[in-house]
Amino acid sequence: MLTAIALAALGLGMLGPVGAALARRPFGNAIVYGGSLALSALIALAALVHLAGGAGPVAFSLPFGLPWLGVHLALDALSAWFLLILGLGGALSSLFALGYGRHEAEPGRVLPFYPVFLGGMALALLAADAFSFLVGFELMSLASWALVLASHREAESRDAAQIYLGMAAFGAACMLLCFGLLAGTEGDYRFAEMRAAPPTGLRASAVMLLALAGAGSKAGLFPLHIWLPLAHPAAPSHVSALMSGVMTKVALYALARVLFDLMGADQPGWWGGIVMAVGAASAVMGALRAVLERDGKTLLACSTIENVGLVAIGFGLALLFRGREPGLAALALGGAMLHALNHAIFKSGLFFVTGALLVATGTRAIDRMGGLIHRMPATALSALLLGMAMASLPPGNGFASEWLLVQAVIAAPRIDQLAFQVEAAVVAVAMAIAAAMAAMVAVRFLGVAFLGRPRSAEAEGAVEADAPMRAAMLLASLLCVLLGLVPSLPLQLGAPVLRMLLPGAEGARLAGGWIGPALAPESHTAYGSLALAALVVLGFMATVVVVQRLAVPGHRRGPAWDCGFRAAPTERPWGNPAAQYTAGSFGQPILRILGRPLLAASEQVEMPEPGETRPARHQSGFRDPAARFLFAPLQAVVMAIAERVNHLQFLTIRRYLALMFGALVTLLVLLAALEAR
Amino acid sequence: MAGVLAALSAFLAQALHLALMLAAAPLLTGFVRLLKARILGRRGPPLLQPYRDLWKLMRKQPVVAANASSLFRLAPYLHMAFVLAAVALVPSFANGMSFAPLSDLVVLIGMLAAARAIVALAAMDVGTAFGGLGASREMTFAVLAEPAMLMVVFIFALLTGTTQLDLTLSVLRDTDLGVRVSLALALIAMVAIAIAENARIPVDNPATHLELTMVHEAMVLEYSGRHLALVEAAAMLRLLFWMSLIGVLFFPYGLGRGADPLGWPLGLALWAAKVLVLAAALALFECAIAKMRVFRVTEFLGTALLVALLGAIFLFLSTSLV
């Protein structure tokens, strides 16, 4: 299986140059995306077989790469799980792109990088040494950076790409230092060696913090999330789907690999408290921003921050429970892994939806859409199903994983330390706030974009997406429904991951359509997704039958009542579209309640004097605290330093040589001093 | 044989429970309305008026807005389905009914959220200002009510070790937990949440059509005929659902067992008494207090959330002292 996946990754890498060569040909699109589709599906299938077959880890090494290191690849349960996510997300995105790519203005800026992006992620997931991992990680970052720049004529995209590149460099630097500390002074960068000698004490904590900063910045954890709502929407929609759905998961994989696997189980529990706090902050801030954003893709990117936060909460809880309550650790980690999979699928699907909307209406602003359920029924249906999954409502798949996480957090007070108990209560509140806001985000997005009256001529003339796009969206929503009805199936598949990362969690087996009880028998609680769905369907059918018996049949159409609102004139059969709630007005109560304290939101009303004929204006806005308190000061410091050292660029050659000599001597002295010790 | 009998009895309890909830929900609404009218010195509508209203609405052909999609017509049925499923899971007179293993409190929160989201979507469908206003406010209130509710669940889970309602009730009924400050705080929070969830005064006014003060009514403004009948019936069911839930969680004494029909009469009598007391309290409260401004509601629900959080923290302190 490892060979198959490695070959598929290599194939993806080689599709890049093919894409560059064929970018201007009419069939280039089909070849690149068709090839990516096949290879991604192959990866997903191989990962599935590995997980289901219960095979142990396999590894091999290649004789190239760094001379003393080589390239080590390995496939174990953890990488197989995330390869499954990558394969599914990649296959769906490629399928969508078969249709969507035809609307691309400059395919030459997308086709060469898209397969390389996928290949880089596959390499990062397969790598069994720090060097190969970082090569894959960087390939992923750079390819996606190029893809963010695909629409380079827009100043927004350029700014987003620049910030993204900076954050990617920061993340890579943190990961590099993290692996450097893990390798120790012996300097063996193979994962197997790191695993054999886990760090202890202060160094271990430093590794943990570096991994959290490095992987967290890539995954979009608060407060390093600032680039994500800028970069993810700027890329073409199928790439946004991959960035939000899969790339953040690769970052979470890195976090899990370091925290659970490489560092061993013998680490302090308070780490969990930190990871949990970061996750809870991300969940709330992400959901809050998602309620306020007016751009369809930006609000989905913000919701990604929320969901990544939820996964991080699961990781934190698992770290906390590890070694104390193995069953509960399995519950938390199982919830996190399942949520990673669920989020990958529903968020990819929702980005497809925004892509279809972009093609149909030419805009990303949901305030210029409306009423699309009439003109794009298939897109609307998948959007409804995917939106319900994002809103974590039963019986959607988002609810199943969130249910597991809530159960884990409710059980957290068993750790008999007051600080953790209070934290668990606060995190539970944060999760519930995030979940309720996620529901609000879904209702707002679906309600403004698909329901109501068309808000623009483009929305009125929109046509349904083409066949591959529809197929990808419907497939994603179908997968969501399936995963929601039988969440125990993916959990069973992921049980080897739990057994691998949590020694002592042998009980991680699951039964039937019920999740929960076998995962953590001590919690005495279960979620019967299938039975519950059957109950709701039964209720639905009973209601329909009773109403059919009792009520008069049929209905009449008439103008909207709206408390006696004036009937629409004939030239505008549906009235003035401005007289409905917009994305901004829908989020306004939240802007006032939570936006003011958390996002420094402001609202100004500009009223004309009596007698003046100009319209009154209402303006509202907010600023992310991470931008205000972290990035703005940081930027100021960097600029100040740059200003100071600027004169170093204008020295004579003698001085440059002197500087170099000085640096060499200093390093030699340092080396000598270290040798002497 | 005994097992089969017990299962049969549990099924009977389930069927009886559902039938009772369906039959009694309009009666409860009628009772509250009548009581409120009497307190205000009016004669008030007859007790059975809600049944007549529902029947009248059923017999009227609905008028659907010209641009409404099929979602609009489907929503009342879906909403009803989720409310019915939730109602089936909350015990009234006996626990251990057939569907008991499904009755997880977190799942119940999710079911109510799903029901709410469906109506909010339907409210956005016609594209009127009132629909959007109602949907936006309803979803906003949920942002504060849901965490408060989860905190209440958290408190019960700390006390009983589970979030499954049926097991929780067994533990509460069969063991003596003593008088707990946390439970009192949870009760306060839960009552506040129930008031918001049922769109009662001071959060919302179920009787108003004064445009800017309404939340839930604004969402369902476009509904008529059988659709409106379904929405109204679901609202009545939800009121009874919350009263039953508060009743069993905080006063579980005398609750029957699904497998033991001999205990049902007592359970039935106690359930009726609990619901009557709560309904009377609701009527009195609604007459005594004025509706608040929309942005005061957040303070009201925020206080409920903090009270519930306080309850949880009290519990941590008291259990670590023991």
| Helix content estimate of chain A | 55-70%
Total beta-strand segments of chain B: 3
User: Which segments of chain A are poorly predicted (pLDDT under 50) over 5 or more consecutive residues?
Assistant: 508-513
Strand order of the largest sheet of chain A: 1-2
Which regions of chain B contain 5 or more consecutive residues with pLDDT less than 50? none
Beta-strand percent range of chain A: under 5%
Overall pLDDT of chain A, averaged?
90
Which strand order do you get reading across the main beta sheet of chain B?
2-3
Q: Classify the secondary structure makeup of chain B into a structural class.
A: mainly alpha
User: How many domains comprise the coordinates of chain A?
Assistant: 3
Overall pLDDT metric of chain B? 90
Tally the helices of chain A: what do you get?
A: 24
- Biggest interchain interface, per-side counts: A-B, 90 and 90 residues
Shape of chain A: globular
CA(first)-CA(last) distance of chain B: 45 Å
Number of helices of chain B: 11
What number of domains of chain B? Answer: 1
SSE series of chain B? HHEHEHHHHHHEHH
Topology:
The complex is a heterodimer of chains A (677) and B (322).
Chain A (H helix, E strand, L loop, with lengths): L1 H21 L5 H26 L4 E5 L8 E5 L1 H24 L12 H14 L3 H19 L6 H29 L7 H6 L4 H19 L8 H7 L2 H26 L7 H23 L3 H26 L4 H36 L10 H4 L1 H14 L6 H15 L6 H32 L7 H4 L6 H19 L2 H14 L12 E2 L11 E2 H22 L5 E3 L24 H17 L2 E5 L10 E5 L3 H21 L7 H24 L1
Antiparallel strand pairs in A: 1-2, 3-4, 6-7
Helix pairs in contact in A: 1-2, 1-4, 2-3, 3-4, 3-10, 3-13, 3-19, 4-5, 4-10, 5-6, 5-10, 6-8, 6-9, 8-10, 9-10, 9-12, 10-12, 10-13, 11-12, 11-17, 11-22, 12-13, 12-16, 12-17, 13-15, 13-16, 13-19, 13-20, 15-17, 15-19, 16-19
Chain B lengths: L1 H38 L9 H10 L4 E3 L4 H20 L4 E2 L9 H21 L3 H32 L4 H10 L6 H17 L18 H4 L5 H26 L5 E2 L6 H25 L5 H28 L1
Parallel strand pairs in B: 2-3
Helix pairs in contact in B: 1-9, 1-10, 2-9, 3-4, 3-9, 4-5, 5-7, 5-11, 7-9, 7-11, 9-10
